[in-house]
């Protein structure tokens, strides 16, 4: 499925009051919208993912998977600031005719949700049957469900939180310190900050995985080895891998957006904000998630009306929301089936 582009004709006003002209949103769709437009599944992607959900969440999305395009109309939009097609720091600034780089305005999770809302309007999608996202994607899904609660019918949030924690912000700041310590970051070049980005990814990976996963996958067999350990080469490899597909400027801004996440901002309190959500909600936490501890998901489930909570134990830590596909398919499938049955019973009573 090829990438599609939507250009917003008006100025896009950010939460901080700044404006983006000619906002372009890259997105993918899979399947067909049914007659009553009741089969929409909208996916909010994580930090460095893209809008091709079948690429990074295969096993949940794809032919013969839980979210089969033969049954659902799946939409995934690339977020503002991302490297994969939506307006970002490497896009051309209409004021100067040159790439934005560090002149790009800061944005928040709330802005990302607002852009989804605009695209949904453009696609003439009035209701989202299922809204799903993990990590930064889950933060977007929560914001959207609060900003327009009547539009979202079923909400699935994985490994996310109501506000980003001091712990999470500290990890992100450490990564930005690595990026900004690379002098080339200020050179206004598309490859600026690449060495810093490599280091940032190495830092991030430690928060995504677990002690157990490293002990198992990077364990040394040779007891005589004194240097160039498996874990060392693995960190270098993962850093280089991201540098080949992403840019330091997008990463810098997106981590700042994650830090900004706070559903209670301007809404009295976090609990008051979560109480606005009307969607049938499933919250999934990962028992050994180092970055988004499971207590954060339990908090969501306690404070969203009638929300369901499920906990999984993953060898991979936080990354389990991307990798524990069989377990997630069972949990999410049961949630969807239950709410579909409740919906049918309600319709029969009305009839």
From TrEMBL:
Provide the primary localization: cytoplasm
Enumerate the catalysed reactions: L-homoserine + acetyl-CoA = O-acetyl-L-homoserine + CoA
Q: Localized where?
A: Cytoplasm
InterPro entries in the record: AB_hydrolase_1 (IPR000073), AB_hydrolase_fold (IPR029058), HAT_MetX-like (IPR008220)
GO molecular function ontology, one term from the record: homoserine O-acetyltransferase activity
Q: Where does substrate bind?
A: 201, 319
Q: Name one GO biological process term.
A: methionine biosynthetic process
UniProt keywords, alphabetically: Acyltransferase, Amino-acid biosynthesis, Cytoplasm, Methionine biosynthesis, Transferase
Signal peptide (residue range): none
The superkingdom listed in its UniProt entry is Bacteria
Has UniProt tagged this entry with the keyword Mitochondrion? no
Query: What is the purpose of this protein?
Result: Transfers an acetyl group from acetyl-CoA to L-homoserine, forming acetyl-L-homoserine.
Q: What is this protein called?
A: Homoserine O-acetyltransferase
Write down the species: Pedobacter cryophilus
Ranked from the top, the taxonomy reads: Bacteria, Pseudomonadati, Bacteroidota, Sphingobacteriia, Sphingobacteriales
């Amino acid at each position: 499925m090829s990438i599609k582009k939507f250009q917003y004709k008006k100025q896009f006003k950010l939460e901080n009051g700044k404006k983006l002209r000619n906002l372009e949103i890259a997105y993918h769709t899979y399947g067909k919208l049914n007659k009553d437009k009741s089969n929409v599944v909208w996916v909010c992607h994580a930090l460095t993912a893209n809008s091709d959900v079948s690429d990074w969440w295969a096993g949940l999305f794809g032919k013969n998977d839980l979210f089969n395009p033969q049954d659902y109309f799946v939409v995934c939009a690339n977020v503002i600031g991302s490297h994969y097609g939506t307006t970002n720091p490497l896009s051309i600034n209409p004021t100067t005719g040159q790439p934005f780089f560090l002149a790009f305005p800061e944005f928040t999770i709330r802005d990302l949700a607002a852009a989804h809302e605009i695209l949904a309007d453009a696609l003439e999608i009035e209701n989202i049957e299922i809204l799903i996202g993990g990590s930064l994607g889950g933060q977007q899904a929560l914001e959207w469900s609060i900003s327009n609660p009547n539009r979202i019918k079923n909400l699935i949030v994985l490994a996310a939180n109501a506000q980003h924690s001091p712990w999470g912000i500290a990890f992100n700041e450490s990564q930005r310190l690595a990026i900004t310590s690379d002098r080339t970051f200020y050179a206004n070049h598309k490859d600026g900050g690449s060495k810093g980005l490599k280091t940032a990814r190495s830092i991030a990976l430690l928060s995504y995985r677990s002690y157990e996963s490293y002990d198992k996958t990077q364990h040394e067999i040779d007891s005589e080895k004194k240097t160039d350990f498996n874990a060392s080469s693995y960190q270098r490899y993962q850093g280089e891998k991201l540098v080949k597909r992403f840019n330091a400027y997008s990463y810098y801004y997106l981590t700042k957006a994650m830090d900004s996440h706070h559903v209670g901002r301007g809404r009295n309190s976090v609990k008051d904000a979560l109480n606005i959500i009307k969607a049938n909600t499933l919250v999934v936490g990962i028992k050994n998630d180092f970055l988004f501890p499971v207590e954060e998901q339990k908090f969501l489930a306690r404070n969203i009306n009638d929300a369901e909570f499920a906990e999984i134990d993953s060898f991979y830590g936080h990354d389990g929301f991307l990798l524990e596909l069989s377990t997630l398919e069972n949990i999410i499938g049961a949630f969807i089936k239950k709410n579909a049955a409740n919906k049918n019973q309600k319709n029969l009573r009305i009839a």
